[in-house]
Amino acid sequence: MSLDRLSIRGVRNLEPLELSPAPGMNWFSGPNGAGKTSILEAIYLLARGRSFRSARTARVIQKDAKALTVVARRGDTGNRLGVERDADGWRGRIDGRDCQRISEFAALLPLTLIEPGSHALIDGGPDRRRQFLDWQLFHVEQSYLLAWQRFARLLRQRNAALKAQAPDRVLDALEPEFLRGAEVIGRARDELVGRLSAHVEAVQGELGFRLPGPLSLRYRSGHPADSELADLLREQRARDRERGFTRHGPHRAELALACEGRAAVEMSRGQQKLIAVVLLLAQYRLLAGGQSLAPLLLVDDPVSELDAPHLAALLDWLGRESVQSWITATSDSPVSATMFHVEHGRVSPQ
After folding, report:
1. Position 327 in a domain
2. pLDDT of residue 291
C-alpha cells in the first residue's frame, strides 16, 4: 500500500483534516467547489513541491492562514513526510530530519496524476512531454537526476557564452562536456520510451478505449536524425550567437505520439483525453514495476471527463490493479470503494 495517514492544514477552503485512507480505491464525492480537488493538490504539493492547479503556491494557502502544512505517512515503509509553506518559502521534514530537497520527497512519494488538464500532455508544447519522460527517469534511474542537473548547467554555460559573444576557443572548451551530457540524457530517454511503449501497448489493450489504432511513441533527439550534434553545434555557432541560445540538443527533444500514422496533436479533444489516460496509466505501471515503493494514482473528476463506457473501463482497470487510488467526483462511486464525502471543506467517511 502507499499512504495510511494524511494530515492537511491551511489548504484552500479545506477544514483541518486527518484521513486514514484505504490501500485500494478512495473515492471523494461532493458538490463542485467543496474542496475535493484540494485534497489531491495537497498530496501533489507534498510529493512535487508545487501545485498542479496554480503556478503560485501562495494561492494555495488558505485566505486567513499564515501557512499550510501537509503531513503523510507511508503504511508500507513507515516513512513520515511533511511540508510547511508560508509567504516566505517552505520547510520540509522527512522522518524527523530537516529536508529541503524536493527530489527526496518525490523519491519517497512517487505518483501519477490524471486531471482535466492532462490533455495538455498531448496538445501542449514539447516541454510537457520532455518533463513527462524526465520525471519517470528520476524515479527509475537513480543517476538520472544528477545527469539532468549537470546537463542543465552545461546548457546554461553554453548559452551564457553565446550571449556574451564568446570566441570560438571558449565554445571549443565547453562543447565536449556538453556533448557527453547530451548523449547521456538522450540515451536514457530513448531507452525509457522503448520500455514505456510496451506498457502503453498493454494498458491500451486492457482498457479497450475507442481509439483509431495502437498508440505509437517515438523519441526525437532534438537535432536532425541525419546529422551529428557535434557537427551542428560547430556549423550553427554564428546563428546561435545571433539568437543567444543553443538551438539543438536534448533540451529541444520531442516525444512524438501517433495513432495509425495520425499525429495525436491533430486528433479530437476527446481522443486526446483518452490518449493521455493511456499514457499516464502506462507511466504508473512503469513506476510500479521499476522501484520498491508503490506509487499513488490521483484521478480528478473522471466522471465528467469520460463518457460512461470509458469511465467503466477505467474503474474496472483500477479495480484489478494493486494501487492506492484517490478519485474525486460529484457523485458516489459506482464500484466498490472507500467513500468520503466532502462539503464546505469538511471531509467525512461514509
Report:
1. yes
2. 72
User: 158 with 166: CB under 8 angstroms?
Assistant: no
What is the bridge-based pairing of β-strands 262-263 and 254-259? Answer: antiparallel
Q: Which residues are annotated as a binding site for ATP?
A: 30-37
Binding residues: 30-37
Q: What one-letter code names the amino acid at 54?
A: S
Cell for 334?
459506482
Residue 144 in 3-state DSSP? helix
| CATH number reported for the structural domain that contains residue 347 in this entry | 3.40.50.300
pLDDT of residue 262: 95
| Strand boundaries in 75-168, DSSP class E | 80-86, 89-94, 97-98, 111-114
288 and 305 assigned to the same domain: no
Residue 38 pLDDT: 97
Instruction: State whether residue 159 is helix, strand or coil.
Output: helix
217 C-beta neighbours (distance < 10 Å), count: 20
CA dihedral 322, 326, 330, 336 (to 10 degrees): 30
Length of the chain: 350
User: Is residue 71 within 8 Å of 92, Cβ to Cβ?
Assistant: no
Looking at the structure, tell me whether residues 278 and 241 fall in a common domain: yes
Q: What's the pLDDT at 55?
A: 85
Strands of the sheet containing 215-220, edge to edge, are 215-220, 254-259, 262-263
Residue 56's pLDDT is 86
Collect all residues with Cβ–Cβ distance below 8 Å to 134 and sequence separation of at least 6.
144, 148, 189
Alpha carbon distance 265, 120 (integer Å): 10
CA separation for the pair 50, 154 (Å, rounded): 26
Range of the domain at 235: 121-292
- Helix extents (H) in 167-298: 168-207, 229-235, 237-243, 269-290
The pLDDT value recorded for residue 58 is 84
Task: Tell me which residues of the chain have a pLDDT lower than 50.
Answer: none
